[in-house]
Specification:
This protein has a single domain, classed as P-loop containing nucleotide triphosphate hydrolases (Rossmann fold, 3-Layer(aba) Sandwich), CATH 3.40.50.300. It is about 40% helix and about 20% strand. The chain has five helices and five strands; from the N terminus they run βββαβαβααα. It has a three-stranded parallel sheet with strand order 1-4-5, sandwiched between helices. Strands 2-3 form a two-stranded antiparallel ribbon. The radius of gyration is 15 Å and the shape is globular. The relative contact order is 0.16.
Length: about 110
Amino acid sequence: MYGSASSLIPYLSAAKELKNQPTQHSVRMLSQEGVHPDVIVCRTEQPLSNEIKKKVALFCNVKPDAVIEAMDASSIYEVPLMMLQEGLDTIVLKKLQINGYAAPELTKWKGF
C-alpha cells in the first residue's frame, strides 16, 4: 500500500535544533505494517534545511523532493499556497501519472 505520511518534526529550543528521528521512527513503523509513503509532509515550527530533508528522505525511503515542509501557518488559507510552493501538486500529479495540467491560478485565493 502506498500513500503519504504526515509527521511532526519538533524543534527543541534548548538545543536550538529540529529532531527528525521521531519521523523516521513513525515511517519505519508504518512500513512494518505494509504502508510505504511516497510523500512525507513534515509539520514544523522552523524551516527545514536541505540536510534534514535529505536525512528524512534517506531513512524513510522517499525521494528528497517528496519531503514537504509544512510550516505552522497563521491562517488556514496560507496552507495551499505553502504546499504549492513546496511542489506538492507536481509530485502528486506525477505519481498519479496525470499530464497536461497548467499551474493553478490562485490569484483570488491569495486575496484572502
